[in-house]
């Protein structure tokens, strides 16, 4: 499947006029970038590798406060035809070293607080069947309500409120899956059908020797997302980080099937 991505944003920066951004489609074994253009006037750009070697971060040093960005890309996503329920999990001692950090609690995903809950609620299941049940539980138990969470909201808050946005759904899946002793990571993506159109978040789980997308919001099919970056939770994959306040002017994200 091929998708087209069009991103335009404007912000006013302050202080050192330096921003770290992550919005370009990653090149992975499951997705190929055919075409991309980037317009970033009045900025000096430097690229560095993203977390876990997925995608790139873009350091932008601006010559003036106004940051104007236009990014367009076309990418092909390789379908993952395997049913999640049929996949097996890997024992902790047999996991690759680069996957181990995604078993551990993180700033927004205090997975160690949910070990007992996961054992009681999902302990009768194994591997992908357990992950699928967790995905379905999060989808059913939570309400998608914009404005109910902010940058300080952790998965403990979300578990109590049972409401949030894609960020919170992904954190909930990551925390519960890690509590089941299965690696899970937070993934920033472009997704078809996201409402309102914006950067989207899903979880990725390590099953059967590789990563698989899981979207508990139900907005996107796992095969209809283009990965941007991954990390332990949202603090690792923000589309923009600045040391000083940035003023929002305009942002538009458009993703469509070709």
Write the layout of secondary structure elements.
Elements: E1 2-12, E2 18-21, E3 31-39, E4 43-49, E5 56-62, E6 66-77, H1 115-122, H2 127-141, E7 143-144, H3 155-161, E8 163-164, H4 166-179, E9 184-191, E10 200-207, E11 210-214, E12 225-231, E13 240-242, E14 247-257
Parallel strand pairs: 7-8
Antiparallel strand pairs: 1-6, 1-14, 2-5, 2-13, 3-6, 4-5, 9-10, 9-12, 10-11
Helix pairs in contact: 2-4
Describe this protein's structure.
Helices cover about 15% and strands about 35% of the residues. The protein is globular and about 55 Å long. The chain is built from four helices and 14 strands. By secondary structure, it is an alpha+beta fold. It has two domains: about 1-80 and about 240-255, Immunoglobulin-like (Sandwich); about 85-235, C8orf32 fold (Roll).
Task: Describe the structure in brief.
The chain is α+β, with helices and mostly antiparallel strands.
Keywords:
four-stranded antiparallel sheet, 4 helices, 17% helix, 258 residues, alpha+beta, single chain, C8orf32 fold
* Mean of all residue-level pLDDT scores: 96
Which descriptor suits the 3D outline?
A: globular
Helical proportion, percent range: 10-25%
Number of strands: 14
The largest sheet, given as strand count, sense and whether it forms a barrel, is: 4 strands, antiparallel
């Amino acid at each position: 499947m091929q998708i087209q991505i069009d991103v335009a944003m404007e912000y006013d920066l302050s202080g050192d006029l330096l921003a770290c951004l992550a919005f370009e489609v990653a090149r992975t074994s499951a997705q190929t970038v055919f075409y991309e253009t980037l317009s970033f006037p009045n900025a000096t750009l430097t690229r560095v590798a993203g977390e876990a070697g997925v995608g790139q971060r873009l350091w932008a040093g601006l010559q003036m406060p106004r940051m104007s960005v236009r990014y367009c890309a076309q990418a092909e996503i390789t379908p993952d035809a395997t049913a999640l329920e049929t996949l097996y999990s890997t024992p902790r001692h047999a996991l690759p070293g680069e996957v181990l950090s995604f078993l551990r609690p993180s700033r927004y995903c205090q997975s160690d607080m949910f070990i007992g809950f996961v054992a009681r609620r999902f302990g009768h299941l194994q591997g992908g069947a357990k992950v699928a049940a967790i995905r379905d539980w999060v989808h059913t138990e939570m309400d998608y309500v914009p404005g109910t969470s902010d940058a300080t909201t952790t998965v403990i808050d979300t578990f109590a409120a049972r409401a949030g946005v894609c960020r919170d759904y992904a954190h909930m899946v990551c925390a519960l899956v890690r509590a089941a002793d299965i690696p899970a990571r937070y993934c920033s993506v472009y997704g078809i059908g996201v409402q309102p159109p914006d950067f989207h978040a899903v979880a990725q789980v390590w099953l059967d020797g590789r990563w698989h997308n899981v979207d508990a919001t139900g907005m996107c099919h796992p095969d209809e997302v283009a990965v941007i970056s991954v990390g332990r939770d949202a603090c690792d994959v923000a589309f923009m980080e600045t040391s000083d306040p940035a003023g929002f002017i305009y942002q538009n994200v458009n993703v469509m099937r070709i």
